[in-house]
Amino acid sequence: MTEFAALQAKLTYTYLPEPVRQGRWTISNTGALTRFLTQSTADALPEPVELSPEDCLRLISPGGIGRVAFAGQGGLVILPVTYKIHEGVVVFRTRRGGAMDRDLRTGVEGVDFKIAFQVDHTDEAAQQGWSVLIQGAIHHLPEGERLSDVEPWAGGDRDLYITIHPQTITGRHISGH
C-alpha cells in the first residue's frame, strides 16, 4: 500500500448537504465527498491578554517604527514613522508641507487633532506578539524645540518635529502555543 493510500484509508468522509459550522471552520462541499473536520482548533488557540498602560510604554520605549493614523483631506491615512519616546510623549520627524503638516493643523490655539499611533511586534514562527495603540493629541513643536536623537529613516528635509501626548494607551499580548 502506498503512503498516499494509507493516509487516504485513515480519512473519514461525510456528505454535507449544507455548510456546517465547526469551531472556527465552515465546512461544505459541492456535491463531492468532503473531509469532515471534527476537532476544533479554536479551543487550542491562546487568548489575547490586555496590557497595562505601563507595560505598553515599556514595550515601545526603545523606539522604532510605528504607524500614525488620522483622517486626512482625501480620507483615512496611515503613515509609518520612526519614533522615540521622550518623557512619556511620542516624538517623530516629518517634512514640512507633507500630509501630517498640512492635514493636522487646526489653526486655532489650544485646539488639537486627535490621532492614533500604533506599534506592534510579531514572531510568526512562535505565533506570539504584542500590539500597542496610543490615542492622543498631536502637536507640532515650535522651531526652537528639537530632540536631536530622533532620526527619520526617510531622506529629504524632515525638520518638522511632532509629538503625540497620550490620552489613552491600550495594548494586547498573545503567547504562542
Explain what this protein looks like in three dimensions.
This protein has 3 helices and 11 strands; from the N terminus they run αβββββαβββαβββ. It has 177 residues and is mainly beta. The protein has 2 domains: 3-44, no CATH class; 49-174, Electron Transport, Fmn-binding Protein, Chain A (Pnp Oxidase, Chain A). The protein has a 6-stranded antiparallel barrel with strand order 6-7-8-11-10-9. Mean pLDDT is 77; it is low at 30-42.
The figure for the number of domains is 2
The portion of residues assigned to helices is 10-25%
Mean pLDDT: 77
Q: Assess the beta-strand content as a share of residues.
A: 35-45%
The general outline is: globular
Give the CATH architecture of the largest domain.
Roll
Q: Please outline the major beta sheet.
A: 6 strands, antiparallel, barrel
Total strand segments: 11
Which fold does the CATH topology of the largest domain refer to? Pnp Oxidase, Chain A
The Cα radius of gyration reads 24 Å
Q: Number of helix segments?
A: 3
What is the CATH domain class of the largest domain?
A: Mainly Beta
Unreliable stretches (pLDDT < 50, length at least 5) are 30-42
Assign the CATH superfamily of the largest domain.
Electron Transport, Fmn-binding Protein, Chain A
* Through-space gap between termini: 35 Å
Structural class: mainly beta
The ordered string of helix (H) and strand (E) elements is HEEEEEHEEEHEEE
InterPro entries: Pyridox_Oxase-rel, Split_barrel_FMN-bd
Protein name: Pyridoxamine 5'-phosphate oxidase
